[in-house]
Amino acid sequence: MNVNDRVRVRLTPHGLTILAEYYDHIRDQLPASMRGLLKPTGADADGLHTFLLWELLAIFGASSGHGFPDVFEDGALHLVPWNAPTPAGTTVRDTTTGATATYVAHASHVAGRGPAQPAALLHVDGHHFTVDAEHFARHFVAVVP
Fold first, then answer.
1. With helix as H, strand as E and coil as C, how does the chain read?
2. Residue 145 CB contacts under 8 Å (≥ 6 apart), including other chains
3. Taxonomically, which superkingdom (predicted)?
4. What tens digit of pLDDT does each residue of 1-43 get?
5. Contact of 144 with 46, CB cutoff 8 Å
6. Among 34, 108, 138, 144, who pairs with 116 as Cys (CB 3.0-4.6 Å)?
7. CATH classification for the domain delimited by 91-142, as one of 1.10.8, 3.30.720, 2.40.50, 2.40.10
């Protein structure tokens, strides 16, 4: 297990409150022109939220423990393989910057004169760009509207 692995959790009402407060706090620290770029994670069709493990600990760690209200239903964390496929058209968020993009497809990226490397093709504001596949797997999570 790695702190950059993705985990899925079903949040309790208290957990949803903690998540909303976290995003409000982060958004308040951004310049007004950037506040719209920060998109909170939402539940998927199964009712689960996806986070990187370190992100989950940063958001919920201080609100978890003996004597605290539960933030996850049944206390369950569902691990997601780091190389699990992302469906085309999924809106993704970079957990290091908060920026969002649309996942287009698996691609190849050539840096300099080196060999082609696996990559993710993303789309933002009318532009396509590639991100190293491992970086994508470790730092991007799906955003559910």
1. CCCCCEEEECECHHHHHHHHHHHHHHHHHCCHHHHHHCCCCCCCCCCCEEEEHHHHHHHHHHHCCCCCCCCEHHHCCEEECCCCCCCCCCEEEECCCCCEEEEEEEEEECCCCCCCEEEEEEEECCEEEEEEHHHHHHHEEECCC
2. 42, 91
3. Bacteria
4. 677 778 889 999 999 999 999 888 888 888 888 777 777 778 8
5. no
6. 108
7. 2.40.10
Do you know the residue count of the chain?
Answer: 145
| Annotated domain spans of the chain | 6-80, 91-142
Contact predicate 48/8, CB 8 Å = yes
For residue 126 the two structure tokens come to 């009318």
- Output the CA angle 62-68-69, nearest 5 degrees: 110
